[in-house]
Here is the input.
Amino acid sequence: MAMEMRARESVNMSEDLSGAIAPYATALHDAFLHSHCSSCFSKLLSQSPCVTSCTTCCSVQYCCSECLSSDSVVHSSSGECCFFVEHLRRASRNYVTEGTSDLRAALRLLYVLEMHGLVSSDQINRYSRIGGLSASGIEEALEEGDEIAERILEGSLLMSSARKARAQTYVSFLDGLKVERMALWAVITNSVEVQLDEGLAMGIAVYGPGFSWFNHSCFPNASYRFVLAPKNEDRISDKSKSRAVPASKGVAADVWHSWHYEEADPTNARCKYGPRVVVRCTKPINKGDEVCIAYIDLLQTKEARHSDLWLKYKFICSCNRCIASPEPYVDLILNRDARDLNKPEDAIAAPIVEDLDDDLQQAISEYSLGDDAKACCDMIESMLSENLMRVPHKGELTGRKQILHPLHRVCFTAYMALASAYRFRAISLKTGSLHGENSDDLFRMAKAAAAYSLVLAGAMNDLFLSECSFMMPLSHFLIGAGQSLFFLVESTKGETGQYLSEARFTFHSCPESSAKHDSLKYSEFRSTCEGFGKQMLSLSFHCWPFLVQGLPCLEKVKNPIDFSWLGTTIHQSLLPEEDYANLSAQDPTSFTKEQKECILSLAICCVTYCKYLTSICYGPQHYLAVHAKDILEGSISICK
Here is the structure.
């Protein structure tokens, strides 16, 4: 029987549901072992006299003596040190290439659970749970015999060898490798990637029932963020009572023992300085409602989401999004091609965009492997030009040759790839590292990057307005658009500051985002987001025709913010029809002073919108909110 977490009380959005939860076990990814502290995950200061390392294996480093003393026992007693010294060389090349963080986290997890009596022989023999962590699905994973099965089998052998080599004895079962397999599978299915700065995944962490019992939903109502543990404090300083409690029926008593053990003392079975996780609600939640987070990328088809979940977690999602009939707007708009947008669900033809998707993935793969950004842009833009629908004229027949519309999932992927590739080309030209292209192309590359970044943010905003689960990807796309627009103006000759001062005067109608968001009513949140959307739309009318000049595929897009012209959007147009007529009459063809001021205003609006959403979703101290704040403060300093 699966566990679940339900709200202890009713909460508004933008409220923390938990205190800072310390992990059972952590492990840096191999690439960060020599640049970050293996205890607290903080970045090591170069040539700092405080930095020290394990004198036996020399494979893990610590930022200070306190971190060394807090982690050294687990490092050596778990078998991790022995693994580095004696057993890493026995691992297959594929195992080492993929990294050893999951195996090392499993060694640490198993040691901690054993030391606190949280390994139940009954649960191990039934392949159900270990230390309260779900291990269901391991039998299916082993039977399927794929790469995960191979990793579990080889990893458990390496773990067993490393554990036997240590001085301490350990729990033994009839099947000598079962406990290692269970621990490794528990890490694979329960660990989360730790992101503390700029979204960089530095390692993994496994948390106890207070976090691991939150289930997945494709329309989640909560998110989570990571924070560094405070130093020079008693174990864990944040002992806030969780506002979410476990619920289930038919669960064995020893499973509940893990929860009660953790609740009784927040310092139990935890890393002293490992990165903490905080759960935060992103929607209003009523008392007794289940609280869910997202395990995977939500910007996928139902089939792709189910495939991802089964591949890693061995379950099929039955959340409200997955079982809805008719399908939610976000799935309708992401999956249906342009010819089927207005048809009833039972009249949809078989999808025919798979070939386009394959071509797109091939272009992205070749770009990733060879860094040929120009070839990537040419291939993807050719595909979009041939298949992306244009705005239909009055009286035009609906039988269109083009099968893609601007909000289709293939277009989202294309926008992301093109924004990245053009940004890479522009930066390479600016730094002089890209040869074979004239330096005069810098402005053209920057303009294309800004255009694709903006349409990506606008398209995601359309999905977000129908389902706020897309709040975080929208935040990332907004800051990407803002940075690209800033870079575009900076790539021209002249001082940016003279335009920024004017831009800020045109920005007065944007909603204020600096207020404290400890609690927020949904109606207020919705109104603020619509205000940002209207401001972005108004500004985009002045500069969109200029941004898409020379980009035939984007010239087909009427506006990057409002997609009501598709005829399927569930949102009404953001501006009255007469405002559309007045704004659309402007068709600037050169990069004038007014254009620069408008683009800078739009950049500020995008970054401010990002800061607002990130502060709500994750809190004002999240790295993305801090980054957005730094960009905005930087723009102010330029004006002075």
User: Anything to note?
Assistant: The chain has a mean pLDDT of 82. The radius of gyration is 26 Å. The chain has 24 helices and 14 strands. Residues 300 and 528 are 27 Å apart (CA to CA).
